[in-house]
């Protein structure tokens, strides 16, 4: 029987189809509220895969609204009692379970300080949903595998919808309905050529840039938790500083060259790493001849990270099983992590 992780990853297109069919009125109202009352600052609250979705959200928001977005270290409020400016801010929490105190308590604090609070959350009966003024359900359904897949993809889509409705971005609003079809195509991509490079890897660098950095962060986390590979994510710009010292002959690297302003520089980096002797796996659209892994493109480059992760999940699930691990039950991990 296929693992829950694989079944859930392959169901992402259906879940996104459900997501896109709901909550348009709520998003329209929230977008109108944010345009009428522009926030003085924006913070995101999230952990794990949800924090990577929040990084993607932050990138889209900063590009399309000009607002600076801070990933809030929640312990500033929950442990250190810092007196942060919260009035007239926008606080966005992202979570599958919505049950970790270090998300709920800060969102409550922002709500009591005349901030706008939003929860992108899968469990709409959770304490996080109850703490938010605006709830954007992920509609991902129950997730049995410890390693999040469909809920992460739904979080990315929820983030893109929030930005599209806030900014009234016609390109995103037109592109979003085509995502389910693109996700089905992405999930069917054959990325098994990556297996010989990754099968015996103990460490690995994952590289992205722009919205591809959040993708790289999620890929590195999944390689850690399901395959016990010490994978680290870096920006294609940052890796050329200290991390470059790690690269030696045979060092495995997974590089994502998404469409957009950074693509040429990322493809050039991949070539430079090959010349250093690294074992490079370049994931890029079909028009990039240097690629080893093909990325399915949606109707907007800003959505390409969503289809890219849909191609990666079946690969990492197969890699975990070939390394003798249970992708549904990563060692030492639980589905819900409650921290403060």
Percent in strands: 15-25%
Count of DSSP-assigned helices = 14
Mean pLDDT: 93
Low-confidence stretches: none
Largest sheet: 5 strands, parallel
Structural Rg: 19 Å
Oligomer: single chain
Beta strand count: 10
- The succession of helices and strands, N to C, reads HHHEHEHEHEHEHHHHEHEEHEEH
- Strand order across the largest sheet: 2-1-3-4-5
Distance between the termini: 37 Å
What is the global morphology? globular
- Portion of residues within helices: 40-55%
Structural class: alpha/beta
Summary of the model, kept short:
With 340 residues, the protein is an alpha/beta fold.
Helix-strand blueprint:
Elements: H1 4-10, H2 12-20, H3 24-36, E1 41-45, H4 48-65, E2 69-71, H5 75-78, E3 89-95, H6 101-111, E4 116-121, H7 127-131, E5 134-137, H8 150-167, H9 170-175, H10 179-187, H11 195-198, E6 203-208, H12 211-227, E7 230-235, E8 252-256, H13 263-275, E9 279-285, E10 293-295, H14 304-322
Parallel strand pairs: 1-2, 1-3, 3-4, 4-5, 6-7, 6-8, 8-9, 9-10
Helix pairs in contact: 1-14, 2-8, 2-10, 3-8, 4-8, 4-12, 10-14, 12-14
Provide a descriptive summary of the structure in words.
The protein is built from 14 helices and ten strands. The protein has 340 residues and is of the alpha/beta class. It has a five-stranded parallel beta sheet, sandwiched between helices. Strands 7-6-8-9-10 form a five-stranded parallel beta sheet, with helices on both faces. It is globular, with a radius of gyration of 19 Å.
Can you tag this structure with a few keywords?
10 strands; globular; 340 residues; alpha/beta; five-stranded parallel β-sheet; 14 helices; 15% strand
């Amino acid at each position: 029987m296929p693992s829950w992780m694989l079944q859930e990853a392959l169901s992402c297109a259906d879940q996104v189809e459900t997501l896109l069919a709901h909550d348009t009125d709520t998003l329209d109202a929230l977008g109108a509220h944010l345009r009428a009352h522009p926030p003085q600052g924006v913070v995101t609250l999230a952990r794990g895969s949800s924090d990577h979705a929040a990084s993607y959200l932050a990138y889209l928001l900063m590009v399309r609204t000009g607002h600076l977005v801070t990933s809030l270290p929640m312990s500033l409020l929950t442990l250190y009692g810092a007196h942060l400016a919260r009035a007239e801010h926008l606080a966005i929490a992202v979570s599958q379970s919505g049950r970790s105190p270090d998300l709920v308590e800060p969102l409550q604090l922002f709500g009591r300080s005349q901030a706008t609070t939003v929860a992108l959350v899968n469990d709409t009966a959770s304490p996080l949903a109850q703490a938010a003024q605006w709830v954007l359900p992920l509609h991902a359904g129950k997730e049995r595998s410890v390693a999040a897949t469909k809920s992460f993809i739904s979080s990315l889509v929820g983030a893109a919808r929030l930005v599209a409705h806030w900014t009234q971005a016609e390109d995103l609003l037109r592109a979003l309905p085509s995502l389910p079809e693109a996700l089905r195509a992405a999930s069917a991509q054959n990325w098994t050529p990556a297996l010989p490079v990754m099968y015996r890897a103990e460490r690995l660098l994952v590289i992205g840039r722009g919205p591809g950095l959040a993708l790289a962060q999620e890929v590195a986390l999944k390689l850690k938790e399901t395959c016990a590979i010490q994978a680290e994510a870096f920006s294609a710009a940052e890796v050329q500083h200290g991390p470059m010292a790690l690269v030696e002959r045979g060092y495995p690297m997974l590089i994502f060259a998404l469409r957009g302003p950074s693509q040429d520089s990322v493809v050039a980096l991949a070539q430079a790493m090959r010349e250093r002797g690294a074992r490079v796996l370049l994931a890029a659209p079909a028009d990039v001849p240097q690629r080893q892994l093909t990325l399915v493109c949606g109707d907007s480059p800003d959505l390409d990270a969503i289809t890219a992760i849909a191609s990666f999940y079946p690969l990492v699930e197969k890699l975990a099983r070939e390394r003798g691990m249970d992708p549904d039950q990563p060692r030492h991990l639980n589905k819900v992590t409650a921290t403060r």
